Amino acid sequence: MEKAKVYDKLVRDKIPEVIERNGETAITRILDENEYRRELLWKLQEEVNEVLNATSKEQLIEELADVLEVLKSIAKLENKTMADVIEVAQQKRLVKGGFDQRIYLEKTIIKEKK
Domain range spanning residue 53? Predict the structure, then answer.
């Protein structure tokens, strides 16, 4: 009797090989560009959630590496490189700063016009 485990998600390129080596059969298909874009964004959300749920420094770094891989793929899909993304990040840092000072904005006060 065969059982199926449904994933319905974008996976890394070598995952089907890993599945096959484990004695299972991987049923896959190639996404078109629109599906790929959508699935990359879902994958980014999935990986960010895993970052948020990491319970050790090692796991955190592992999950950040996964986020980075997804970001690389999104940049490539948009005909950009990580160098392009980093350049934009550096420009934003010059204008808005980074997060080094740990500033937490609680609220603003809006002055009433007289």
Answer: 31-96
